[in-house]
Amino acid sequence: MKLMRSLLILLLFSFFLSNSFAESTLNYKFTKTYQNSAGAVTFSHERHALVYAKDCAHCHSALKIFGGEVNDLFAHNFCKQCHLDTSTGGPTDCVGCHNKKEAFPQ
Ligand code: HEC
Ligand code: HEC
Ligand code: HEC
């Protein structure tokens, strides 16, 4: 009985912890710019999370497989694939994602 009770308390406590953790990290309304040799790419996480994608896991489980950070492999395959697939579109040509002025400086 005593063991059951401590297990229950532990369970409740970890539930509380994970909940407050989720809340404090749920800052998904941000935009991030990726500087690179082909011209900066500005990614609106807010628009993608709220409007363009159906769920968070769609990207986040894939992101995990790519080591947790956006690199060119992830961008040119996973990101671009969705732009090709989705009925609403999204840029698939280089300068659709990359800043044109930086990509082709005059
Ligand atoms: C279109 C793909 C995509 C979708 C959809 C998406 N995310 Fe993300 N998210 C990313 C990428 C990529 C990053 C990494 C940004 C970086 O640091 O380079 C990220 C980062 C984050 C971060 C910041 C993590 C940190 O280390 O600062 C949070 C929080 C987050 N996402 C929450 C969410 C939530 C909540 C949802 C759903 C409502 C969501 N995301 C939907 C792609 C996505
Ligand atoms: C769930 C599918 C999906 C994924 C995954 C996705 N995008 Fe998009 N993206 C879209 C859609 C839909 C649009 C908007 C198309 C429109 O309205 O013109 C868009 C638009 C964009 C734009 C144009 C500016 C804007 O915000 O409208 C950029 C740049 C962009 N995405 C970059 C990225 C990058 C970088 C990633 C990966 C980290 C990514 N996208 C992943 C669906 C996606
Ligand atoms: C869906 C958006 C998207 C499209 C389309 C896209 N890129 Fe990128 N590209 C990115 C992102 C995001 C990064 C930055 C990744 C990072 O920060 O490591 C990147 C990085 C790069 C890099 C830098 C690689 C490095 O190792 O420094 C080059 C070069 C590049 N892209 C060229 C291109 C070319 C050429 C095209 C067209 C054939 C293209 N990209 C199309 C999003 C895109």
Report on the architecture of this protein:
This protein has 106 residues and is mainly α. The chain has a single domain (2-102), classed as Cytochrome C3 (Alpha-Beta Complex), CATH 3.90.10. The chain is 60% helix and 8% strand. The protein contains six helices and two strands; from the N terminus they run αββααααα. It has helices spanning 2-25, 45-52, 56-65, 72-85, 94-97, 100-103, and strands at residues 31-34, 41-44. It has a two-stranded antiparallel ribbon with strand order 1-2. A hairpin with a 6-residue loop joins β1 (31-34) and β2. The radius of gyration is 20 Å and the shape is elongated. The termini are far apart. Mean pLDDT is 84; it is low at 18-24. One heme C (HEC) is lined by residues 41, 43-44, 47-48, 52-53, 58-59, 70, 75, 79, 82-83, 86, 88-91, 97.
Major sheet attributes? 2 strands, antiparallel
Going across the biggest sheet, name each strand in turn. 1-2
Categorize the overall geometry.
elongated
Q: Spell out the helices and strands N to C.
A: HEEHHHHH
Structural class: mainly alpha
Keywords:
elongated, 106 residues, mainly alpha, two-stranded antiparallel sheet, single chain, Cytochrome C3, binds heme C, 60% helix
Quick structural gist:
This protein has six helices and two strands; from the N terminus they run H-E-E-H-H-H-H-H. The protein has 106 residues and is mostly helical. The N and C termini lie far apart (77 Å).
Secondary-structure topology with pairs:
Elements: H1 2-25, E1 31-34, E2 41-44, H2 45-52, H3 56-65, H4 72-85, H5 94-97, H6 100-103
Antiparallel strand pairs: 1-2
